[in-house]
Amino acid sequence: MLDPTDRALLAALQNDAHSSAGQLSDMLHLSASQISRRRQRLETEGFIQGYSARVDATRMGLSVQGFVQVHLATHGPDNSNSFARMVDLRPEITSAWTMTGDADYLLRVYCADLAALNTLIHDVLLPHPAVARVQSQIVMDQLKRDGPLPTG
Predict the structure, then answer these.
(1) Dist. CA 35–CA 20, nearest whole Å
(2) For residue range 45-85, what is the model confidence (pLDDT) as tens digits?
């Protein structure tokens, strides 16, 4: 179980994972050793799954962000596994979810330009034997960046 201090620690780490134990102890009014022990426990118990840097897609030359809904032709473990392997190998597909509703999968993609998105859709996704059709939406503007999970 998480107590309020664990939740506050998780919120602080989501805000800035580089915060030192000293900085966190000042924020949460605990000793640095208590912070370190709590952080270690949260890591060991899987509440904290890792640390990463947010990289600016535009500065990396990835000017097109899109969401692609994928509808499978037939459902079964072989098609699903084959599709999942393909998704895992494509760096431009940054997230993938199985969905309820009309589409079977929702993919988040980042591409250099519209031509690259077109290539991904027409040369990679549609030719895959598991795929019946795709629908894509291009992001015009992102109103809210992926934020931290609620901890309260």
Answers:
(1) 9
(2) 999 999 999 999 999 999 999 999 999 998 889 989 999 99
Round to whole Å and give the CA distance between 11 and 8. Answer: 5
User: Which helix H or strand E contains 21, and what residues bound it?
Assistant: helix 21-28
Q: Quote the crossing angle between the two packed helices 4-15 and 32-44, to the nearest 10°.
A: 90
DSSP run (H or E) holding 105: strand 105-111
Q: What is the dihedral of CA 91, 92, 96, 101, to 10 degrees?
A: -150
Contact 131, 125 (CB under 8 A): yes
Name the nearest CA neighbour of 120 among 60, 65, 82, 58.
65
**Helix pair 21-28, 32-44: axis angle to 10 deg:** 100
Distance (Å, whole) CA 71 – CA 75: 10
- Enter the pTM of the model: 0.86
Q: Are 78 and 134 in contact (CB under 8 A)?
A: no
Quick: pLDDT tens for 82-106.
Answer: 999 999 999 999 999 999 999 999 9
Cα 138 from Cα 39, distance rounded (Å): 39
